[in-house]
């Protein structure tokens, strides 16, 4: 771990190394300056000099550029030195503050805060009944007793959703299934479908077909007495029905 003292030594070494360009760079710069001075041509004499001063020669311009480069390098070294000094000051300031913490205030009087505690302890030990006296001795009202939570009752039964009304298409599909059962001599299914039609379509469009199917299904099931009574009621109500021949065929009656 780097200590503040080691950090200051590193900054000091960096400051010394950044005061100017290296010796090799300085030697190269002066060699270039001397070469430019030796290569330059002498200026004109006063007798031959024109009234207007001629422009500076290329050699003089190069010399000025070299001198400006030397000044820039030296200036950068001084700036680096100033920055190193400022960094050292910033590091030294918090280090000094941490090394010398302020001592606590010795003028704090703890006697005043300790006195009430001693008085309270002495009063409690002198009269123990005073410490146990609570709101009950002062006539404070007692807390009301909470009523027990009632037990949850059974959940209310939800009404069943109403069945969708049957349509004429439903009635037609039911009658087609009934006709198929009669054609296949399935009397049990036929009687079941007759009861379903009577329940869902009591006053439907196919009451005549339902009564004819009832008589035929009873006769096919071997219930001759019930089948004949159903056939007679059907013939009385619909004497000219197109289903009368099928009823008499299943129930064993000849057509009148």
TrEMBL record:
Basic and acidic residues compositional bias, start-end: 157-169
Annotated region described as Disordered, given as residue ranges: 1-25, 89-169
Biased composition (Low complexity): 122-146
Record field: compositional bias (Pro residues): 147-156
Alphabetical UniProt keywords: Membrane, Transmembrane, Transmembrane helix
Transmembrane regions: 59-80
Name of the protein this chain belongs to: Uncharacterized protein
């Amino acid at each position: 771990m780097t200590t503040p003292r080691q950090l200051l030594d590193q900054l000091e070494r960096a400051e010394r190394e950044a005061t100017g360009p290296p010796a090799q760079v300085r030697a190269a710069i002066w060699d270039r300056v001397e070469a430019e001075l030796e290569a330059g041509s002498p200026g004109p004499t006063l007798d031959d000099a024109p009234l207007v001063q001629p422009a500076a020669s290329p050699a003089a311009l190069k010399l000025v550029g070299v001198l400006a480069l030397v000044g820039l390098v030296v200036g950068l070294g001084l700036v680096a030195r100033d920055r190193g000094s400022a960094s050292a000051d910033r590091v030294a300031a918090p280090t000094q503050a941490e090394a010398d913490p302020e001592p606590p205030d010795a003028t704090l009087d703890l006697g005043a805060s300790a006195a009430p505690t001693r008085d309270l302890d002495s009063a409690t030990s002198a009269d123990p009944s005073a410490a146990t006296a609570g709101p009950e001795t002062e006539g404070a009202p007692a807390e009301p007793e909470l009523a027990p939570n009632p037990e949850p009752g059974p959940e209310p039964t939800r009404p069943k959703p109403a069945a969708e009304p049957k349509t004429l298409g439903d009635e037609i599909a039911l009658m087609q299934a009934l006709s198929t059962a009669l054609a296949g001599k399935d009397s049990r299914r036929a009687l079941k479908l007759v009861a379903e039609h009577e329940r869902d379509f009591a006053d439907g469009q196919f009451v005549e077909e339902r009564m004819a199917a009832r008589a035929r299904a009873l006769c096919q099931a071997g219930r001759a007495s019930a089948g004949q009574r159903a056939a007679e009621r059907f013939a009385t109500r619909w004497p000219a029905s197109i289903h009368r021949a099928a009823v008499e065929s299943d129930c064993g009656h000849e057509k009148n």
